Amino acid sequence: MTQLPRPVRRGFLIAHVVTSVGWLGLTLCLLVLAVAGATAERATADAAYLAMGIFGDWLLAPLALASIGTGLVLSVGTPWGLLRHRWVVVKLLVSLVAATASLLAFRTSINEAADAVAAGERVTDASSLLAPPCVSLTLYLFLTAVSYLKPWGLTRRGQRHRERERRERLAARDRGQKPLAAASPGRPG
Questions:
Q1: Which residues does residue 85 pair with via DSSP β-bridges, in sequence order?
Q2: 81 lies in which domain range?
Q3: Which residues, in sequence order, are bridge partners of residue 154?
Q4: In a domain, 89, yes or no
């Protein structure tokens, strides 16, 4: 795939960081509201569950999908590649699992709690709203560390790609041609 031009790449990088940090921040807010709902007096707990419903309905899906979408564009449009480095594959898989769990399971629990409060009932299983944001925060912190450290090296596909590029550079050198610039997976600026 053709590499993204530098200004476009930077724009997508900013969008990815903003949406990823937004997703993490939203999860932290949902955790705080879940704790308030589980421990506060009834009026505060009801307000917390209603707020969780609003955040879950309006922000959870857009932030999760935008984070994954911008990450996919960056992986395909930069030298890192979608399937060349293990850390990229791990980030994608963990993000997909977290988004699926958040959108299908956690959001359903949030909506059930908000609906119960709107109907004048008490939320009976407050603990079901505490564990998901704790797990999500742990996953997002793990993803942040993986993004920064970039561990685990190349995948088999990435090794084949790097070897093919090396052979092409050597062949061009042997023919006396100027070799094509190697796409370095260093921190693209």
A1: 154
A2: 6-152
A3: 85
A4: yes
